[in-house]
Amino acid sequence: MPTPLEIIRKKRAEAINRIISKGYLSSKRVYVGMATCEIAAGSIEVMEVFQEAIRSGLSDVYLSQKGCAGRCNLEPTVEVVEEGKIPLKYGLVTKEKAKEIIERHLKKGEVIKEWLIK
Length: 118
What we know:
Number of helices: 4
Largest sheet: 4 strands, mixed
Distance between the termini: 60 Å
Number of domains: 1
CATH architecture: 3-Layer(aba) Sandwich
Oligomer: single chain
CATH superfamily: Glutaredoxin
CATH topology: Glutaredoxin
Helix content: 40-55%
């Protein structure tokens, strides 16, 4: 029978593994707008592009959804937050733009200025 200390160590290790596997410690965070209006504008397809990239090996990126940003005319939106940098929000993101954001911004560090919401 395990000792109480062994049980605690095991639970701690499991919790740390969960935190790491979900990407909570990633240096890059991507938030896709998933409010009802953004879904109507196509954000589910945009989210799927980011999910597939992560499944295919895009690392050090935490992906989540966010609520209404109040910018319906610019939806779908994607916010990229990088450690030590000002958060950036892309507007009118399509599946094709999402792929470019992954390749250019997340992989190469190139901000696509013409797509930013100012």
